[in-house]
Amino acid sequence: MRAFGFDWQWRSSGEPLSIDDYRRAASRTVPRMVWSYIEGGADDLRTVAGNRTAFDDWWLVPSVLAGHDTHDLSTRVAGLPVSMPVLTAPTGFNGLTRWSGDLDAIRAAERVGTRCVVSTAATWSLEEIADAAGEQHAFQLYPGSEGVAAVLMRRAWAAGFRSLFVTVDVPTVGNREGERREGMGVPPVLTPRRLLDVARHPRWAYDVVRHRRIGGRNLASGNGVTAALASIEVQERHLVQSRLNWDDVAWMRDNWHGSLYLKGVLRPDDAVRAVDLGVDGVVVSNHGGRQLDGAIPSLTALPAVADAVAGRAQVLLDGGIRRGTDVIKALALGADAVLVGRPCLYGTAVAGDRGVEHVLTILRQEIERGLTLLGVRDVRDLDRTHVRPAGTRDQNEISIAAITTQ
Ligand SMILES: Cc1cc2nc3c(=O)[nH]c(=O)nc-3n(C[C@H](O)[C@H](O)[C@H](O)COP(=O)(O)O)c2cc1C
């Protein structure tokens, strides 16, 4: 309400302004069991935390009097034109967060002009997603055995996907104790306290019962609870594959005629090997800290990977992006674009497709403002002169010397 020259609100907490506001709001919309799945990670959450703090290891170094008031954020990722260098990361079982989660991401991404990487463990089948989409998106493959990979690749191609992101950092599932502590598992462990918690989220509970979008629809059919649980078991049995190796990547390269990215690469030597096999890009990622706890934060791993790839393929990054300035730092350190995982789930949890759209719009506005303040016109003009390692002066000099001699 507007009166006496002021905007009046009945409650003090207005619209979320930042991704962190969305995180706080999202945590209230789902039971703790589900929140432990969205927000958690492996073991002691060291890598989850490191993915965030790694951004504090770098300061931005602005130029003044740059004279730019417009920015070009557009680029191409995996052959797909995007209005900004931010895509949504694949997240499985989105229906746990909100029944419409996978479609929310697609609709929101299209409205802001970007694209999604759709998870193998989506709660809408890849065909349903392709039907609902107005644009082409990318498909993320948990490769598992050659047989399962071949079927999913054929289905994805037939549905119109031309960009494949193969996730290679799940030779086994990380130790997510936080989930187990909250009873998240197959089957979920229910206690009176947990049932009460579900009852405190009637909207969420109603949607689960009404829409039954909690299981992975690419992995098992049917919409009952048994099918949902079976889909998680199928994923663990067939798609998580400790024997996956470089020959499998070569096989996928031979059998996928669109663009092929490996997601979950942290070492320069692995990135070079992937590029030598003909992949179009790598995603520097530790799976949002959900796999190997203690694994190097993505941003820390990025400069060496970008140097080793040396422009022969695209380098993307995910893990811990929560601000436009995080995107700017990643691009300055050699990423061509980034993926965001949890922020989109926060958006879905709070307000469905409008929530994801707002999350992506916040990032876009923050990137634009950040570029203006940094004195840079286009995202492709970002380079290492725009960042400087934080820390003591001596450490800075050592790190800068290391970067300039790499
Ligand atoms: C709830 C959840 C589910 C995920 N499921 C998948 C998945 O199915 N496939 C995959 O490759 N990565 C998956 N990831 C990892 C994300 O693709 C991405 O690497 C990570 O979320 C990036 O970190 P961020 O959440 O800090 O942005 C998942 C992440 C989360 C949080």
Describe the model.
- By secondary structure, the protein is α/β, with parallel strands linked by helices.
- It has one domain: Aldolase class I (TIM Barrel, Alpha-Beta Barrel).
- Helix content is 45%, strand content 12%.
- Strands 6-13-12-11-10-9-8-7 form an eight-stranded parallel β-sheet. Strands 1-2 form a two-stranded antiparallel ribbon. Strands 3-14 form a two-stranded antiparallel ribbon.
- A hairpin with a 2-residue loop joins strand 4 and strand 5 (80-82).
- Helix 1 (19-27) runs antiparallel to helix 15, helix 4 runs parallel beside helix 15 and helix 14 (324-332) crosses helix 15.
- The N and C termini lie far apart (58 Å).
- The model has no long low-confidence stretch (mean pLDDT 91).
- The structure holds flavin mononucleotide.
- Flavin mononucleotide (FMN) binds at residues 37-38, 51, 89-92, 119, 121, 140, 167, 263, 285, 287-288, 290, 318-321, 340-342.
Instruction: Tell me the domain tally.
Output: 1
CATH superfamily annotation = Aldolase class I
In CATH, the topology is named: TIM Barrel
Give the % helix: 40-55%
Give a short account of the largest sheet.
Answer: 8 strands, parallel
Q: What is the CATH architecture assignment?
A: Alpha-Beta Barrel
Strand element count: 14
Q: How many individual helices?
A: 16
Question: Low-confidence runs (pLDDT<50, min 5 residues)?
Answer: none
**Form type:** globular
The helix-strand sequence is: EEHHHEEEEHEHEHEHHHHHEHEHEHEHEH
